[in-house]
Amino acid sequence: MRRRRFPRRLVPRGLRTRLVVAFLLVATVSALAAAALTFRQARAAILDRARDDAVHDLRAQVGSLAPDLPAAPAATDLRALTLQLDRAGGSRDWRTAAAYRDDALVSAAGPAPALPERLRGAAASARTAVVQRFHHADEPWLAVALPVTRADRPAEPSGLVVYASFSLAGQERDVAALVAAARAGALPVVLLAVVPALLAARRVLRPVRQLRSAAENMAAGALDTRIRVTGDDELADLGRTFNTMAATLQADAATLRAMEARARRFAADVSHELRTPLAAMTAVTGVLDQDAASGRLDPETSEALELVADETNKLVRMVEDLMEISRFDAGAAVLEIDEIDVGELVGKTLALRHWQDRVGADVPPGLRARLDPRRVDVVLANLIGNALRHGGPSVPVDVRARAEDDRLVITVTDGGPGIPDDVLPHVFDRFTKGDKARTRSEGSGLGLAIAAENARLHGGTLTAANAPGAGAVFTLTLPWAPV
After folding, report:
1. Which CATH number applies to 338-479?
2. pLDDT tens digits, residue range 25-43?
3. What Pfam families does the annotation carry (predicted)?
4. pLDDT at position 442
């Protein structure tokens, strides 16, 4: 059997609303409990007093009239007794009857008064008054059975029992009035409880709101945010804990920023210092390459020279990438905007690197844009080179460009195995390489990071995804307006 769930809109979601509702529920339950207890005690007191007064009055009347009766009273004597008792009932308006031993009930006039069946049996063996409440004609009644003792021998029953019954409708009306008064008094109590409930909720939620505001400020970067703590309750302890946490985070953030600044400065300094010796090494390897090409060097020396030249070129590219990243980190990278033809830019990028035969280009003719051609060339070169390396030499690579509303969208797609799912979220992180199985690769791990930084510098985005079939898709989106 499925559990029925209430609609979410019927459940109060705000903490303030929940506190007020809980406070009101407690006040309502307390008021109802107090009203119920008061009603129960008042009803018992009213009915007990009616019983005690009736027993007392009946005993007093019987005590004054019974001595005049004969030892074995006849029916006429009992009728005269009940007549006098009926007249003495006063506002209680009871009806009485009497029975001697097991004879029939005798009343003053008419039929005997209404009595419960068990009352006569209980009174036959009782030595004190027997009282029982019952219903008659849809009204509550009270019946009293009073055994009469002999005047000369009080401990011995005389065999005479006097019965009296009367309606408790008046007492029930008093009880009903109490219920109405309790019900009417509970509503103002609940309504008045709204004021202390709101005040209590406000007092409880004030530090919670302060904590929320302080947490939002810290999330926005204001790590020096602190809250004012007063009191010694649990919320005050929470506030002090928050301040301690904020101070720790601020100190850790300052330490991390200092370490990051030192690391960036170190990378920039090392890259700068490496440029001069690398330039000399490149010049020397260039001269030696000419000697190797002319055949003046033996094969083993030529092979070693080729290895040194390749590694030197890789090191030069890595240093250049590090320098470029350092400029981005220092905020020194600037755009040199120019109006260019996107098709020509893509063609030059492919021709400069001899990729015309391996890469397909689909650019609408006459598509022009205002951007930094050097930086867009760097982005395209990194994306296409990455696609050629990881897609394989026989896998086609496509470059497509199109204008969509106010955006220029350039996609680079390859048909390779795609980007692993665990690498895809980090593909633009620095020093991330898509093929972890290769401990040695041509890339520095900075190419895609530099491409993403150039896209952001233009106010655009660079995203990576896997195509539905196979291969990776890189999408460069830049601001664009018709030129």
Report:
1. 3.30.565.10
2. 777 777 777 777 877 888 8
3. HAMP (PF00672), HATPase_c (PF02518), HisKA (PF00512)
4. 54
Convert 368-402 to b/e letters by CB count within 10 Å (16 or more is b).
Answer: bbbbbbebbbbbbbbbbbbbbbbbeeebebbbbbe
| Chain region(s) in the chain for CATH 1.10.287.130 | 228-332
The answer for residues whose C-beta is within 8 angstroms of residue 237's C-beta and 6 or more apart is none
Topology of the domain covering 228-332: Helix Hairpins (1.10.287)
**Span 446-455, mean pLDDT?**
91
Taking the C-alpha atoms of residue 247 and residue 249, their distance in angstroms, rounded to an integer, is: 5
Every domain range in the chain assigned CATH 3.30.565.10: 338-479
d(CA 363, CA 476): 14
Nearest to 443 by CA among 404, 387, 395: 387
Question: Is pLDDT of 140 > 80?
Answer: yes
Average pLDDT, the chain: 81
Q: In sequence order, what E strands does 305-460 have? A: 338-341, 359-362, 368-371, 397-404, 407-414
Q: How confident is the model at residue 440 (pLDDT cuts 50, 70, 90)?
A: very low
Q: How many whole angstroms separate alpha carbon 361 and alpha carbon 341?
A: 14
Top mean-pLDDT range of 125-139, 176-190, 299-313, 356-370: 356-370
Residues 6+ apart with CB under 8 A from 442: 314, 389
| Per-residue model confidence as pLDDT tens digits over 389-411 | 877 666 689 999 999 989 999 99
| Residue 339: strand pairing partners | 370
Segment (H or E) for 477? strand 472-479
The secondary element (H helix, E strand) that includes residue 157 is: strand 157-167
Q: How many other C-beta atoms lie within 10 A of the C-beta of residue 349?
A: 22
Quote the CA–CA distance of 124 and 135 in Å, as a whole number.
22
Half-sphere exposure of 186 (CA within 13 A, CB side): 22
- Residue 138 burial by CB count (10 A; 0-12/13-18/19+): exposed, middle or buried? exposed
Q: How many CA atoms lie within 13 A of 228 on its CB side?
A: 2
Whole-angstrom distance, CA of residue 472 vs CA of residue 419: 6
* Helix, strand, or coil (residue 398): strand
| CA pair distance 386, 392, nearest whole angstrom | 10
Lowest mean pLDDT segment, chosen from 149-163, 267-281, 402-416: 267-281
User: Of all helices (H) and strands (E), which one includes residue 155?
Assistant: none
The two structure tokens encoding residue 191: 């309504």
